[in-house]
Amino acid sequence: MKPKGLPKTGGRAPGTPNKVTTEMKTWLSGLLDKNRKQFERDLKRLEPHQRVLLFEKLLSYSIPKMQATTAQIDFGRLSDEQLEIIINELTKNLENE
Asked: What does the alpha-carbon distance between residue 78 and residue 72 come to, in Å, rounded to a whole number?
């Protein structure tokens, strides 16, 4: 165990990929590619809600999650007409839920 505060010595150089991770990704990619048709057949056999859950899980590996943003609106600067539009849109959305 290294004493606290001393730099790490040995191991991989920064930025060097992990060999096991690289091999696993290559193997998994090949496995998925070779079994693509079977995977598609299996997907079609799932109940719709199960299919949606699986798609949601798989999407996290291909599309990065978006971070929540907060918009700040200075309502004091809006005209009465602009405020009315916002109120109508919010009311419409609440009625549709």
From this structure: 13
DSSP result, 15-44:
TPPPHHHHHHHHHHHHHHHHTHHHHHHHHH
User: Is 26 a member of any domain?
Assistant: yes
Neighbours of 92 (CB within 10 A): 9
Distance, in Å, from the CA atom of 64 to the CA atom of 55, rounded to the nearest integer, reads 14
Amino acid letter for position 34: K
d(CA 86, CA 80): 10
Report yes or no on 78 lying in a domain.
no
Whether 25 is covered by a domain: the verdict is yes
pLDDT at 10 over 80: no
Give me the chain's average pLDDT, please.
82
Residue 21 has pLDDT above 80, yes or no: yes
